[in-house]
Amino acid sequence: MIIFKIIGCIMVIASSAGMGFYFSSEMKCRIDDLKELKKLIVLLRGDIRYANTPLPEAISSITRRHNGNFEAFFKKVSSQLHELSGLTFPDIWKKSVDLNLMNTSLTKKDKLYLIQFGDHLGYLDKDMQINTIDLYITQLEDEIKEASKSAKEKAYLYNSVGIMAGIFITIIML
Fold first, then answer.
1. What gap in Å lies between CA 23 and CA 28, rounded to an integer?
2. Largest CB tally within 10 Å, which of 72, 107, 148, 150?
């Protein structure tokens, strides 16, 4: 009978520690996703600014060159832009953010900024599009700095709280 208690205690501690490690790794994945998104937006800016590429073609170009977490998102935007379904660019962008970015580690705030970026991007001339892209890149850089600054502290906190919670629950169970 005592062996079952020991096995149960080990399982409780391991599972709660695992949850702590999961949450800390999610923070690191969010930072990686933000960096990847920034890289893609910089590529978009380069295509629009230097190659004078229209927005739908620039997004198609990014789709062909990229195969990461945002591949499905940009493919969906690109395919819907080429369908000429009558939807506006902000509607296509918002729908794609809602449907295709569920598997990323972006927070609701990150997705809201991305939707707002799409709202201001689709109907402007080249110079205003570049200014909008530059503003969004600045927002991404600020989010990356903020997330990176707090990630180390929070990761340690999540890991410690996970382990301590498991030990606390084990003590209560005994």
1. 9
2. 72
